[in-house]
Design brief:
The protein is 71% helix and 0% strand.
Amino acid sequence: MRKFFFASVILMAAVCFVECKSMAKAAARYWTKQQIKEFKSKCNNAAKNNKLISNASDFCDCATDKLSEQYHNYKDAEKLSALEIVSKALDCRENSK
């Protein structure tokens, strides 16, 4: 019985950790999941062609959070060109290594 209880507690803690971590993303506070997906896609297309960015996925995760903080209204962020996205999130390059 103790093993079952202990295993249940560990499982619940793991589920909470994963869910809480994914909900901690800054972009989720301001944009919908669909908007985040669209923005990351646009960012990935721009970052793949940039020689200064070694990992487009990590860069775009950071850039999405950073730019959602600057542009709470997704319509404003949607107007950014690919070059503007990369230039406004240059400090995210450290996360892309």
